[in-house]
């Protein structure tokens, strides 16, 4: 009887969710399904939520709406695994998740168990990520946006073994400062200032990630240095560089979704110090958690339309070429999407997705319309 009650509850929930989804699809024309959307897709290793959503939807960021997910569900990891089947319920305008459970006796057709929700039991290594995790994984813990004085009081390398100028793997480093009981640290050097493209004010500093060190022997007296061993080296590391505690292992699975409130941001920088970015490259924007951005936020990328003279407009008798012609602004050009995967107070890191043009500093990144 207990099993019957549970099944009835799930069916009731599925019916209610389907009704809600149908209503949402009606009120949000941009969250439309592709005309050639398949009836189903079997999840395979290497799939991402973004890729799967793109097989069914015109805009992958509409993923939460067609699953009928609320804000709390979006913020928590929702897992889909290889071998499961995503079904397009055309009647309700919604996606469903099913798991093959066997073959029927008549025609060898697999029977399927449907669920009204995404799988949430446990966190497995085989779970399908929202976007290619290998691209962003180094950026989840390594690049660091800090305030002007944030590194000033951090533990610092004050000397090296045998007065070496550059530290290599397994070299010793002598450190002063409060470790706050930490044993594993990342090493940073204060980097270039990040300026808001609109106000031109400095909104943060992107500290250069140099590598990792591990405590080998804590200081035995107040005037003694801690002894660290260099574990990894990404860039040259030496005296004066600062230590920050190793962050916890991040959760890679963020559900793609539009921001909760309207966001109008600008591209601040392209990671690596270049001026342009392409698909699967990392950029920063001048908006963060204070502006309603969270993990998984999707923004649309635009380039401002140029202001050009209307050469077809009749000018004065003395007008030559474009001189004296009225100026007209061309429409802004929407050319791609940005998936936010790391958020600070005033700055966020995003992965460039599905672009038809290069991303340039100063371009617009705003809420999907």
Query: What order do the helices and strands follow?
Result: HEHHHEEEHEEEEEEEEEEEEEEEEEE
Distance between the termini: 48 Å
Radius of gyration: 26 Å
Percent of residues in helices comes to 10-25%
Strand content: 25-35%
Q: Biggest sheet, open or closed, and with what strands and sense?
A: 8 strands, antiparallel
Helix/strand-derived category reads: alpha+beta
Number of helices: 5
Average pLDDT, rounded to a whole number, is 78
Gross morphology is: globular
How many beta-strand runs? 22
Please mark out the parts with pLDDT under 50 across 5 or more consecutive residues, or reply none.
1-27, 102-123
Detailed description of the structure:
- The chain is of the alpha+beta class.
- Helices cover 14% and strands 33% of the residues.
- It is built from 5 helices and 22 strands.
- Strands 5, 6, 7, 8, 9, 10, 11 and 12 form an 8-stranded antiparallel β-sheet that branches. Strands 13-15-20-19-16-22 form a 6-stranded antiparallel β-barrel.
- Strand 2 and strand 3 form a beta hairpin.
- The protein is globular, with a radius of gyration of 26 Å.
- The N terminus is likely disordered.
Q: Can you summarize this structure?
A:
The protein is an alpha+beta fold and 369 residues long.
Descriptive terms for the model:
alpha+beta, eight-stranded antiparallel sheet, 5 helices, 22 strands, disordered N terminus
Fold topology:
Layout lengths: L1 H26 L12 E3 L6 H8 L6 H5 L3 H5 L9 E5 L4 E10 L6 E6 L17 H9 L2 E3 L9 E5 L11 E5 L7 E6 L3 E3 L6 E16 L8 E8 L8 E4 L18 E7 L5 E2 L4 E4 L12 E6 L3 E3 L17 E3 L3 E11 L4 E6 L5 E2 L3 E3 L3
Antiparallel strand pairs: 1-2, 2-3, 3-4, 5-10, 6-7, 7-11, 8-10, 8-12, 9-10, 10-11, 13-15, 13-22, 14-21, 15-20, 16-19, 16-22, 17-18, 19-20
């Amino acid at each position: 009887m207990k099993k019957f009650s549970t099944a009835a509850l799930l069916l009731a929930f599925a019916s209610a969710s389907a009704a809600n989804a149908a209503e949402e699809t009606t009120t949000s024309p941009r969250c439309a399904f592709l005309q050639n959307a398949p009836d189903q897709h079997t999840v395979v290793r290497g799939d991402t939520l973004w890729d799967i959503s793109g097989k069914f939807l015109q805009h992958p960021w509409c993923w939460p709406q067609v699953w009928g997910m609320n804000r709390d569900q979006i913020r928590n990891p929702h897992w889909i695994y290889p071998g499961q089947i995503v079904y397009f319920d055309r009647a309700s305008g919604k996606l469903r998740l099913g798991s093959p459970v066997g073959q029927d006796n008549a025609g060898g057709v697999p029977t399927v168990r449907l669920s009204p929700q995404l799988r949430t039991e446990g966190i497995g290594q085989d779970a399908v990520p929202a976007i290619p995790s290998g691209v962003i994984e180094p950026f989840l813990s390594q690049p660091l946006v800090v305030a002007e004085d944030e590194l000033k009081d951090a533990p610092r390398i004050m000397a090296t073994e045998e007065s070496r100028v550059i530290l290599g793997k397994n070299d010793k480093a002598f450190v002063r400062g409060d470790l706050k009981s930490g044993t594993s640290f990342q090493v940073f050097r204060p980097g270039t200032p990040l300026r808001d493209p609109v106000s031109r004010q400095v909104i943060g500093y992107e500290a250069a990630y140099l590598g990792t060190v591990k405590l080998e022997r804590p200081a035995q007296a107040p005037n003694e240095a801690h002894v660290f061993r260099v574990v990894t080296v990404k860039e040259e590391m030496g005296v004066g560089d600062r230590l920050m505690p190793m962050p916890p292992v991040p959760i890679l699975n963020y559900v793609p979704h539009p921001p909760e409130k309207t966001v109008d941001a600008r591209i601040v920088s392209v990671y690596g110090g270049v001026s342009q970015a392409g698909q699967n490259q990392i950029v920063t924007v001048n908006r963060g958690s204070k502006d309603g951005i969270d993990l998984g936020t999707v923004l649309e990328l635009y380039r401002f339309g140029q202001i050009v003279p209307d050469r077809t407009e009749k000018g004065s008798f003395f007008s030559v070429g474009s001189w004296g012609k009225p100026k007209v602004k061309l429409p802004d050009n929407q050319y791609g999407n940005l998936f936010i995967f790391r958020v600070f107070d005033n700055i966020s890191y995003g992965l460039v997705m599905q672009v038809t043009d290069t991303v340039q500093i100063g371009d617009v990144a705003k809420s999907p319309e």
